[in-house]
Amino acid sequence: MRTTVVFFLNGKRHEVGSDQAFQTVSDFLRYERGLTGTKVVCAEGDCGACTVLVSRFRAGKLQPYQSINSCIAYVYSLHRTHLITVEGLKRGQELHPVQAAMVERQGSQCGYCTPGFVCSMALLAEDAKREGFRPDEKKVRNYTTGNLCRCTGYAPILEAGVAMDLDRVQALSSFYGDDRIEAEFSAIRVEGIRIRGEGKEVFLPIDLTEAVQERASDPTVRLSAGTTDLGVVSNKGKLKLTRLLSLQEVESLHLIKKTGNRIRVGARASLHQLERSLADEFPEFSRMLRIFASPQIKNSATLVGNLMNASPIADTIPFLRVAEVLVLIASPQGERRVGINDFILPGYKKLDLRSDELVVGIEIPLSDHRYKLYKVSNRKDLDISAVTFAARYRLKDGAFESFSLALGGVGASVLRMGGIEAQVLGKPLSLNLFRALANTLPGEITPITDVRGSAGYRLRVAQNLLLKFHDDLAVEEGLGINEASL
Amino acid sequence: MSIGTNIRHDSSVTHVAGESVFIDDRPEVRGEVHVGVVGSPIARGILKSIDAREALAHPDCLGVFTAADFHAKHWGTITHDQPFLVVDAISYMQEAVCIVASSKRGSVEAIKKLVKIEATPSEGVFSIDEAKAKGEILYRAASPFIQGDVDAALKSSPHRLKGIFRCGGQEHFYLESQAAIAYPLENGQIEVHSSSQHPSETQRVVAEALGLSFHQVVCVVKRMGGGFGGKESQGAPIAAYAALVADRLRRPARIVLTKDQDMMITGKRHPFQNEYEVGFDNQGRLLAVNALLQSDGGAYLDLSSSILERAMFHLDGAYHLPNVRVEGICYRTHHHPHTAFRGFGGPQGNMTIESILEDVAHYLKKDASEVRRINLYSGANLKTPYGQVLENNLLPRIHERLLLSSGYEKRLGEIREFNSRRCGKVRGISLTATKFGISFTARFLNQANALVNLQLDGTLQVSTGATEMGQGVNTKIQQIVAHAFGVCPDAVRVMPTSTEKNHNTSPTAASSGSDLNGAAALLACDRIKARLIPLARARFQGQEFDPTREFESPESLTPSPDPDMVFSEGVVRDQRSGKSVPLRELIHLAYQNRISLGSYAHYKTPDLGFDKTRVVGRAFNYFTQGMAVSEVEVDEYTGEMKVRRADILMDLGRSLNPGIDRGQTTGAFIQGMGWVTSEHLVYDRDRNLLTHSPTTYKIPNVQDTPREFNVEFIENPDNDRNVHGSKAVGEPPFLLGTSVWTAIKHALSFRANGQEIRLVSPATSEVILMELTRLKGE
Fold first, then answer.
1. How far apart are CA B402 and CA B398, in angstroms?
2. Does the model's ipTM exceed the 0.95 cut?
3. Count of domains in chain A?
4. With CB atoms counted within 10 Å of each terminal CB, which end of chain A scores lower, N or C?
């Protein structure tokens, strides 16, 4: 059993255990290594000033670099990774082409967000080079969605992204000799890691059996996945982390596999992987994931993590509920599969899960249903939703052969709207029907007033989304309805 | 020739490389202490006790300090009414009650939690209406601004509209939160490094807090990670906390607020609630405007009086108001003390008239840009409500050109057509203007001093009171100095701002940083040049320099260097004789002849002086003007809005650095857009700020910016009021963000069926949807 994690930082090997392993990556960089280019502003993964690039060693190779928020990632999660910070992008005195373009186009003003933007755009350069595309303004936007700037109004940054000299971009793997790093990682014996320090303990097993035992051994053990939520609540002093279990070193749980008529999503598969993997089978869901969160968050966060958070405004849950996914649960008693709609219990954040159980994955059944997913928030991208809407349906001869509906943000949990489903089933698509449903909605949901919207607003949005659903379908089905129902 | 060229920001290379040093990037030194602030758990009441026993028992705790530890109990920029730490009365939620010192960074939060505060709450005042009912007035403007006879004109106007315009506050969201490090020096001195727009005030506030004379304190500002006005006054007490701990423990002390705490403690842009009645003719020409501006000042005065006045100064917007009365009152509430924020009241005044004009156009069923055009300052109609007459007025030209370049007419037609299709989306387009008065309205602040040191190798070090917060003031000063000596910009370094080099400086605010400090630096350069030129002339005349005879160079406080002696490309050339000498050689000669190669200069803006009691005089040196056209699309199902296109045309005189000015323009516009759309401050019943981090407080992100975004500057070589014919840029374009809000109003007008549109700011998705719902009568 190891008691340290080994990683490379800008080409230099580090082996860290004990207290330092429980630091956030950004604190480690800034206060232990003096790499103060990485900034911390919000400490909750929302502003991107702490963005760094990371490549994980998996299946004998360093995988493509990805951006993460270092303020909510922990050092213990860095085992067998290569981390590149803003300081590591300059080669000698020569600026990275992204840095040069940012200088040239006046892309930085106060400079505090700049290192984060530079890292996000260096990743764009890396991907553009590897995948052979030329960054246009849209691409630059998509790669910098997770970075806030208060000075520039973004225009000079977008220009810099488009203007960077792609011909001069070299693969990050060539910066510090990733072959050498891979060789070193290959030489590390694959085994579980247990680190203790600062009154905390984390266990990173390499196989599921050990994970299940650890989970069952102590109900206070918390699962540490992408820590995009755990890191936030810990940073904000709302939760003291003591015993942690991370499934990161369990290789099989990173996979998204298509088997027969279902897709199995491992507990550690990131939302970024998911967005790419489901583009063909569930294009609506894949598209929703695009605006769901920033690249940095999606590179760390997992589908299972979003489900386990169980928030009434968790963006994936409405889809999971109408898609009728299965939740895969492991415990010392063996594995069980529960339908999502039984797994989520009525009430705030209540799940059918015993303290000795562990969710190891989700199975999404393939079907010929169609989906409509809506997410409404104050700001379009990267904002927690006020209301979410997921419908799964099949129309036959203009009538609903199948219809499932889930709404988020309108009650203590994401709700399956059984009453409405029953009224729709078998009926033809008509405005009168959906108007009537919208009118019954006040009796079906109990939205609350909070920072993201008033109860009245949420109700109105939910009602309007029913009409929008009707209108969208009417257009798609060519029913000759050209005017919005509003 | 570096003036007018797009040279890069002087920190850009270190910014992109992650090598720029901000306060918390400074290495920790031996014995350094970390300071945290404990805030009040109630918004109003009386502090009964602070129990620090448990905190002091924490192994890392080095002390807990209260108001009793401060020499002066209060501070304040205009009046000293705000306690450093609560003395007895608590006036807002999270008001600083005590500070803790910890030997470890990681223990600050834990120690803070161990401090127990007991307080007796009482009923607070949290809105302008409540404050009005209770007569809680912080400041009332000395005199209203009056032109013509507003009552008679209202009475005789063919049409009248009456209403209340409401706009919300705004969090600065500078990325670097308030931060300072204080180093105790010998003989009781303190050196404080602060993220501050106002090092001179920080120096004074720190000295007063500690009971030191001012010469015992030096304040250094290398740079800020954003300021936007939030570090004009409110950085000072934060620095004082660090200084107090440093002084008491004789150890360096560092304070770095978390983003959450910064947002909860510090004041915001002032919310306003402006009552008005306007009269207008059939064309939409404003005949009379009667307005009462009312702001929520928060718990203490801070800069609220000046901000209220600037709102009054900008109520006219870009429009001539023949009969007008503008009054202003700032109310006291139990909110964080509201403070300077880019525009400084100007946006709240300006937006009121833009909202009114949008309503007038809607009421008359006319195109709002045409209604605006006929109201613009133009021809002989150049007198403002405060009596100052506009000079070098470009508003009509800007309007004409922007309408053309933005394709306004054609797009308006397309929008009408689009909206008639009722596809679930509704679009709007709107043009608004900015005519921003440049100068501090407090005359004494319009001064600056600069120190220029010419080194023997021909490079220069420049120090001024300007602080760099990203706006590029250092780069512009670098350009001015490089230009003066005809050297490349890289030969000039603008040094960290420090109160020992530049005294009694004004805050870097009011968009004036480059104007004032650039002019002072230029003056200092001219003084050095005036000494070098006679020397060059002597050399060209073949004079031998005799070690037994002193070469006397004249000294002038207002030098005008011989224009025929040109400093260019590292050479000094006499245009008449064609003779030249390399600058370095001349410098060396000057040094050998004991001629000073450094200079200091003081600059004050000429012809300024406004009496706010009598409402006479020149309040502003000049105006920066501009206009924007924005087009928006509103989702009628959800109220979500996006900006399809924005076109901006600014008059920046002869821009010192078009690249920097362009960045200031786009940045200000987007910040203004955020203020009127997604940036919504939400408090709970106890007045805890709920939106205290970017998860809940939504500044625009990269996806929110206009899909098409055009920025142009209009040619204007005629501004002789400012250094090198340039114009200030920091704040004026902020006001143009308003065009997004008026465009939303325009979009809603297509679903209003002739009803009045009641839109508040910020127009969040919720505000938009609920107003749409009301208009449709659903």
1. 6
2. yes
3. 4
4. N
